[in-house]
Design goal:
The protein is an alpha+beta fold. The longest helix is centred in the N-terminal third of the chain and has 25 residues. The chain starts with a helix and ends with a strand.
Amino acid sequence: MVLVILGVLAVVAVPRFTGGTPYEARGYLDELSSAARYAQLQATVTGCQARFQVAGGDYRLDHADNCSPGDFGNTPIPHPSRGGPFQGSLPSGVSASDVTVVFDALGVPLSGGGSAVTVSGGGFSGSFLIHDQTGHVVRQ
């Protein structure tokens, strides 16, 4: 009886805790859309341009250096709860499309607006859109 229970757990539960599950992909999609919203918020709060960038699946948020338009070098936006730069890495078995969006002081995309970010893995596929006129982030 014990072997039957262990067998059922191995078939049902273990795949949920290994890489590339739909849960990890959905979680990363939520993380990316929140990061895009936070970059827009930081642009409006600070009055400086902010950049949301996904490259190779990893993402990061930056302020324009010395509030100089278009000058993104070494000024990462700090993460509000864990400290350090606001950035993240792609979970194993999950893929994400590349995008770079620069928000102005009003939160409107200067470049990259109208971009959709798609995340997939483990049978899950989801996306969000950054509207080009408003910068509003909408899950699709």
